[in-house]
Design brief:
The chain is an alpha/beta fold and 368 residues long. It is 37% helix and 12% strand. It has an eight-stranded mixed β-sheet. It has a two-stranded parallel sheet with strand order 3-10. This is Phosphoglyceromutase.
């Protein structure tokens, strides 16, 4: 039933610290879209549905045959296209994909914990803080790249986050920087909301409470984020999706695959939307990454320092600054802590803070 509800709402939506600045190489991009897919494995991204899990009825208690029909194929190239068609039709032809370990192209978490709060802290601060060792950690003391950019001329008040998991508000420390971070069951506020924003506020409260307090289904997060994009034209929009991790922890592989398929559709819809909007068209880059990986075989439901392979991740990029190199097959190593400085560099800044920050991903910054 929950799959039907998620699909229905997805269809409805898709239709309807001190700071210093150093200029980087001139860029075309003026805006940035960031997607985080919590706990989505590189294996499904590059290989499609995993037969060792897909054909195990323990992990497919829903419509088993329908899941197989939707996502199974004889080879990895076909499977991954069925699972994430936009990724393999558009990003693979116009952008870059890192992290296919079958080619020795490695992307890894640098922090030692391999779960969500430390992973997002690493992404947005460029710093692996060993003190952040729990998902219940309070407001993040480290400066993140979004608040750094928010302090720059022409960006103040033009950065917004929509997250399925309520801890993202602590990770980005909205209590300190007062940036808009919308989380589970929170309405977008304002005196001049568009009709779509008003409807999105209403719709999120009609979604089933599948995961419990603090966890909103991704379709609700996405509805609010897209409505905000159309109404406010933020310079940076960060959309944090959580369904993959939640369904994996529940051991529901069919729902996990559906979550990836729907996320791909959301990414596609945002890309299509910005290509039709003069404010964004030709001036907007997009990055997609997870916060951590997860285990293999019977350990696919778990992640963390005790679960092998859950430090293995990926990175996708597309936009006017991103050379069309497709799936990267050269032997190389990227670490997640490099993303914060990459985000800054794409917009022409050097991110500085009162803590160390890793160097950017130089491969992405080689412009067309």
């Amino acid at each position: 039933m929950k799959q039907v509800i998620i699909a229905f709402f997805s269809f409805c939506l898709l239709q309807s610290v001190s700071v210093t600045i150093k200029a980087q190489q001139p860029t075309q991009a003026k805006n940035l879209i960031i997607f985080v897919m919590d706990g989505y494995r590189w294996k499904e991204l590059y290989q499609g549905a995993d037969s060792s899990i897909l054909f195990n009825r323990k992990y497919n208690r829903g419509d088993y045959n329908w899941t197989i029909t939707k996502y199974w194929a004889a080879n990895a190239e076909e499977r991954r296209k069925k699972l994430m068609p936009f990724t393999w039709q558009t990003i693979a032809s116009e952008g870059q994909l890192y992290g296919n370990r079958d080619y020795g192209n490695y992307v890894n978490v640098q922090n030692s914990y391999w779960f969500s709060y430390p992973g997002r802290n690493e992404i947005f601060t460029g710093y692996c803080d060993t003190a952040i060792n729990s998902n219940d950690y309070p407001d993040n003391p480290n400066t993140n790249v979004l608040e750094f950019i928010n302090a720059q001329p022409d960006f103040t008040g033009k950065i917004a986050t929509f997250a399925s998991w309520d801890a993202v508000a602590r990770i980005l420390n909205r209590n300190r920087n007062h940036m808009p971070v919308n989380i589970d069951r929170e309405d977008v506020m304002g005196n001049q909301l568009t009709p779509l924003q008003q409807e999105a506020n209403t719709w999120q409260h009609l979604l089933p409470d599948v995961f419990g307090k603090g966890e909103r289904l991704d379709v609700g997060t996405y509805m609010l984020a897209k409505a905000y994009l159309l109404a406010n034209h933020p310079r940076i929009l960060y959309i944090d999706l959580g369904d993959n991790d939640d369904f994996a922890h529940a051991g529901e592989y069919g729902d996990y695959l559906d979550a990836a398929h729907y996320a791909d559709a959301m990414i596609a819809d945002i890309w299509k939307t910005i290509q039709a909007d003069p404010f964004y068209k030709g001036k907007t880059d997009m990055l997609v990454m997870p916060d951590h990986g997860r285990g293999n075989g019977t350990e696919w439901t778990n992640h963390g320092a005790r679960t092998a392979h859950s430090d293995e991740t990926y990175l996708m990029a597309i936009g006017p600054d991103i050379a069309a190199k497709g799936e990267m097959k050269d032997a190389s190593q990227i670490y997640q802590q490099q993303y914060a400085q990459t985000i800054a560099a794409l917009l022409g800044f050097t991110f500085t803070a009162n803590h160390p920050i890793a160097a950017p991903v130089k491969q992405i910054l080689v412009h067309k």
